[in-house]
Write a structure and sequence with these properties.
Two copies of one chain form a homodimer. Chain A is an alpha/beta fold. The first copy, chain A, folds into two domains: about 20-35 and about 260-360, Alpha-Beta Complex (Aspartate Aminotransferase, domain 1); about 40-260, Aspartate Aminotransferase, domain 2 (3-Layer(aba) Sandwich). Helices cover about 35% and strands about 15% of the residues of chain A. Chain A is built from ten helices and twelve strands. In chain A, strands 2-8-7-6-5 form a five-stranded mixed β-sheet, sandwiched between helices. In chain A, strands 9-10-12 form a three-stranded antiparallel β-sheet. In chain A, helix 5 links the parallel strand 5 and strand 6 (about 180-185). The first copy, chain A, is globular and about 65 Å long. The interface between A and B is large, with 86 and 87 residues.
Chain lengths: ~350, ~350
């Protein structure tokens, strides 16, 4: 070992979901939106290929004012209640670095977004996982012990299960000595946001993203909302890390996405309708799952192993997500695509299960 | 104080250079390139407003392969010797987090890029500033003491002074137990890169940026080059922080910028020629400065206070940079703009100094 290796921060990195490079796959493995971004995004891109082109040589606005203002306007907040970052991962990483500096462990569910323990390890933050109950529900009373902060997604990932607002309020209320982060990446698909609670509790931070309901995963935009003291602390750390994270094109394009309410409501509604229909179809095929309020379903089959189904789907170019983790290694997470994509998935599954049944008889 | 404030990482944030919002200013305060990005960047933007538009709903390639490949190809490196980030600030922040985990202080010059101490404070890294000599030169022997790592820009900022390659090699050689980072943000304006030394020293990391010589400050792209072990450690930390930092548009557009060698050489040459001409003009006006090999000059006047000149320039909508810091509070950093912009600067200075002289006589 070289001497300099002693000073290196060594981590086990997060492994992102597969991004298959071949064309013509049905990609239901990373919870992307099946519909393109709002048309205003295209207009913003055209401006940069035209009269705003020369501007690219200049630094972007470090305060990200245009985007912060759009988001604040949309949620009826003040600008100093909104923080933006390079995807909600950037926002969450900054929040861990800013708020979780206690010697007591932070708390999060055992089955949840798999980045929480990665950030905790990276920043040397102690943590304790709290087990979900047998129906994959967060157990409120687990979050009443002494801790250095709390984070959980709502709806939770990869389960899709939504927690009721009064339960969330209880957790926030019981933990006013620490910061509680509610990660609402999937809230726009039928859940009720805890956002109004930021007026009542100064220890609550809400994190959302443009990657799912706004169809902009490829552009990297996330945001946090909270009281202005929390947002100020977040900004101080962010400016000490990288003053210019949001590029000029992102600032313009994401602002346009926020402004097109009709498009947003339209795609949101389509995804929810498709999800509800797919729930019925999958039940008919012998899959079971807790009710999901996200843009994905977390399913298990009564007879066949998830991993086998996953491999069969992949062979036929349909990508879903399989986690080889304790308690969930017989589940598949299936993103909600277009109706046509879901019909192809269901047709494949129907045929596959039929074949397996035949093989079983033979 | 609320109880949760105890767990907050409190920092004094970096203050970026002013980004004036009014039009028709001559902006020579943040070392941006006066020429637009290469034409291929425009074509990449047009692709995203056209047939690649739908792709924006999907996550970008987390390995940033297209851009890494372009950079590696340009410098005749392997892909696993290149790391990319959201501007060189992101790359440097990741490098501090990854490589500077010693209880011994890291070393950097007292007059240098003002972000180094901000990152050290943010990550609780001990540091010691090494004073430049009276001619603002880095003193090589100051970097021979025990340390936890070394970083300096070459050419240095805000002085523009270039260090000879054999001196850099001496520092790298004397410090093989730690990582040495050479921050080459301004190397393309006439300096000689230390890049070939990465083949000889496994403790050397070279950091460069698209913000200056590639005219893409508004798009946020920086990169590091080193041996594959260093790059692997950097990537592990980066993937543990945010797997998807480089958005789809950036990956495509920045790759195009690398490919257009003729455009790059053309704008580089123009800036160097303008700089050399401006050096002569400013000398005639009574300014003095050490020789700069960057896209800026760091000047002081024999008779008049830098701060007064700064204020006068600003009133007439010409922005340069003034640092109210010990040892350099009678200097101005002036970015090299187009010939026309520099002519207007010189005309203003000539008139201003003439007036001051008249006032002095009266």
């Amino acid at each position: 070992m070289r001497a300099w290796e002693e000073n290196i921060r060594k981590v086990i990195p997060y492994v992102p979901g597969e991004q298959p490079k071949q064309k013509n796959v049905i990609k239901l493995n990373t919870n992307e939106n099946p519909y393109p971004p709002a048309p205003g995004v295209r207009r913003a891109l055209l401006r940069f290929s035209d009269f705003s082109y020369d501007n690219l040589r200049k630094y972007p606005d470090p305060t990200a004012d245009a985007l912060v203002e759009s988001i604040a306007g949309y949620y009826h907040l003040e600008k100093d209640q909104v923080f933006v970052g390079v995807g909600s991962d950037d926002v969450l990483a900054m929040a861990f670095l800013t708020f979780f500096n206690s010697s007591k462990p932070i708390l999060f569910p055992d089955i949840t977004y798999s980045f929480y323990d990665v950030w905790a390890d990276l920043f040397h933050i102690p943590y304790e996982r709290q087990p979900l109950d047998e129906k994959f529900r967060i157990v409120k009373s687990d979050y009443e012990k002494k801790n250095g902060g709390i984070i959980f997604p709502n709806p939770n990932a990869p389960t899709g299960i939504l927690m009721e607002l009064d339960e969330i309020e209880e957790i926030v209320k019981q933990n006013q000595d620490v910061i509680v982060i509610v990660d609402e990446a999937y809230i726009d698909f039928g859940g009720i946001s805890a956002l109004p609670l930021i007026e009542k509790y100064d220890n609550l931070l809400i994190v959302q993203t443009f990657s799912k309901s706004r169809s902009l995963a490829g552009m990297r935009v996330g945001y946090a909302m909270g009281n202005k003291t929390l947002i100020q602390y977040l900004n101080d750390v962010k400016y000490s890390f990288n003053s210019y994270t949001m590029n000029q094109i992102v600032l313009a394009a994401a602002s346009e996405a926020v402004k097109d309410e009709a498009y947003f409501q339209g795609t949101r509604k389509k995804i929810i309708e498709t999800r509800e229909r797919v729930k019925k179809e999958l039940k008919k095929l012998g899959f079971s799952f807790e009710d999901s309020m996200a843009n994905f379903l977390f399913v298990t089959h009564e007879k066949y192993w998830a991993r086998d189904i996953f491999e069969a789907l992949k062979r036929s170019h349909i990508y879903v997500r399989y986690f080889n983790h304790p308690r969930i290694d017989n589940h598949l997470r299936i993103s909600i695509g277009t109706d046509e994509e879901m019909d192809r998935l269901i047709a494949f599954l129907r045929e596959y299960l039929e074949e397996r049944k035949e093989q079983g008889k033979a």
